[in-house]
Amino acid sequence: MLTVDFDRLGLRPGERVLDMGCGAGRHAFEMYKRGADVIAFDQDADELATVREWFAAMRDAGEVPAGAEADVKEGDALALPFADGEFDRIVAAEVLEHIHADVDAIKELVRVLRPGGTLAISVPRWLPEIVNWKLSDDYHNAEGGHVRIYTAEELVDKVTKAGRSNDGTPGDAMVFTGKDYAHGLHSPYWWIKCAVGVTNDDHPLAKAYHKLLVWEIMKNPRALRAAGRVLDPLIGKSMVLYFTKPMTTPDASLA
């Protein structure tokens, strides 16, 4: 299921886009279907190999527009192997909460985004996430797990300051343009998992709720879409923030 709204991001065919921390590739696949020139970036070589296979399968099945391109790149979020301003749009979905040096990762995202480009960042929402942490230490103490819980204000502050120059002048300070919430039906599932044991997949309540989520993902029935519209703003598991990089560098004397 998608977390980012690509219409809100402003994605257009032919644009060069980065899915940073792509994981299994769900957002990269959607951008490819929309005709973009996609780079799926991650540090997990095995997942990237699977993403590459899916890119090829999509192309062979005729699921992407003519001219669309897609590739994978392995690397470190703290030192992105791309030129300044290389990408028109960037997605970083559910990744920053795993990175200890998140400010450094954000600075890299800002660096490789072109002036006028847009950035979407999604992270677990504060309220559902704090419930998970209170219910289970195993939820976040696992290797590669979540290392922080963001408030919207904290993350907006970190991103909007990421483009400032070393002397504190505005530089290419990012502009916050809005937020959404997603996956309201998923929060109760994780509360259940944390309460009964995050590895206890055989618990009857967890199994029953998992079937509901599979139904949502596979069939997207009208009733669950309606439930999502109600639950997303209340308990949506993910928070999505949108930003734009200014077209021109402000005059420091006016700051």
From TrEMBL:
Molecular function in Gene Ontology: methyltransferase activity
UniProt KW keywords: Methyltransferase, Transferase
Keyword Transferase: yes
Enzyme type, top EC level: transferase
Domain Methyltransferase type: 18-121
Gene3D superfamilies hit by this protein: Vaccinia Virus protein VP39
GO biological process: methylation
Classification via CDD domains: AdoMet_MTases
Alphabetized SUPFAM superfamilies for the sequence: S-adenosyl-L-methionine-dependent methyltransferases
Listed Pfam families: Methyltransf_11 (PF08241)
Keyword Glycosyltransferase appears in the UniProt entry: no
Record-listed E.C. numbers: 2.1.1.-
PANTHER family xrefs: METHYLTRANSFERASE
The protein's name in its UniProt record: Class I SAM-dependent methyltransferase
Source species of the chain: Nocardioides astragali
